[in-house]
Design a protein that fits this description.
Largest sheet: 7 strands, mixed
Helix content: 40-55%
Radius of gyration: 19 Å
Number of strands: 7
Number of helices: 11
Distance between the termini: 34 Å
Shape: globular
Strand order of the largest sheet: 1-7-6-2-5-3-4
Low-confidence stretches: 1-45
Structural class: alpha/beta
Strand content: 5-15%
């Protein structure tokens, strides 16, 4: 494990740290990387890693996210341009219900919103509905978002991502040299920040999903930052016929009870990461089954 990751580790968590248990790639290290790490030699990027020049470009992009200049532009754009227009448009097209919104309204420090994800465009709907009104008075609720390379694959998309505060995952370089590291720095730098993450990736209409390891890595780096599960209902069933009857389809957002990685006990790093993923999956399931009290 690098010294950088050790510096994030909670001394009180009771976790036995082993050199091979903290993978440097987003989906876990291969056998060769584990062997190199055990021998103390430098690890090469995983075979699925983005090319070095792309990774460097994305790292420069990520380093700009959270700067004073970037946050100033993002706040103006999100609070006074895109935010109100998107909020009105979503409410014009859908019957919108938000349960548990007060949990977001009372946030005063850094937080991680873990949101169910179906399509690449659904954050454009969910973030204005969930955060815009409260962000007008609590500007730390203007969110930074962790997202895949769909949003940063061209210079034009990176410019849009800069304006929207999107931090890029860098395939093959997570968590120590990519978006997870940058997000954890912004959450833990003493200034309140809100980071949204979509741990399943876009799953479309599939009923099966997997919670990727990114939420676990972010949790162990920021164990005292609350993780807030958010479920969305009605989006998967959406299609053009939904508006043929001239009735707005229902879109429901359910904000669950926050939990902390520091509350989750494990005997190793890998187990800790997996239990964070399991806790989030269980919280989503409770929300989707209408068992919000159980999630609390």
């Amino acid at each position: 494990m690098s010294d950088a990751l050790k510096s994030f580790w909670p001394a009180s968590a009771g976790i036995q740290l082993e050199e091979k248990t903290v993978p440097s790639s987003f989906h876990g290290p291969g056998a060769a990387e584990q062997k190199d790490r055990a021998a103390g030699s430098p690890c090469q990027p995983a075979p699925y890693a983005v090319p070095a020049h792309v990774a460097e470009s994305l790292r420069r992009h990520n380093a700009c996210i959270g700067s004073s200049l970037q946050r100033s532009f993002q706040r103006v754009f999100s609070l006074y341009l895109y935010g109100p227009m998107a909020f009105l448009l979503v409410h014009a097209l859908f019957k919108v219900r938000v349960e548990g919104r007060e949990r977001i309204a009372r946030l005063s420090g850094s937080s991680i919103l873990a949101i169910r994800h179906f399509y690449e465009w659904d954050p454009l709907l969910s973030l204005p509905v969930l955060l815009w009104r409260d962000a007008l008075t609590k500007q730390h609720l203007v969110p930074l978002s962790l997202a895949g390379q769909f949003w940063t694959r061209t210079a034009f998309m990176r410019a849009i991502s800069w304006l929207c505060g999107i931090i890029a995952f860098i395939k093959g370089h997570e968590p120590e040299a990519g978006g997870i590291r940058r997000a954890s720095e912004l959450l833990d730098n003493g200034n309140a920040a809100t980071v949204t993450i979509y741990p399943t990736g876009p799953i479309g209409q599939s009923k099966e999903y997997q919670v990727w390891r990114g939420i676990g890595y972010l949790g162990v780096r920021c164990p005292d930052v609350p993780i807030i599960p958010v479920s969305i209902q009605g989006l998967q069933e959406l299609h053009l016929a939904s508006w043929r009857s001239l009735r707005r389809p229902e879109l429901k957002f359910i904000v669950g009870q926050p939990f902390y990685a520091s509350e989750i006990h494990a005997s190793s790093t890998e187990e800790w990461i997996d239990r964070i993923r399991e806790r989030l999956t269980a919280a989503w399931t409770c929300l989707e089954n209408g068992k919000q009290k159980r999630a609390e």
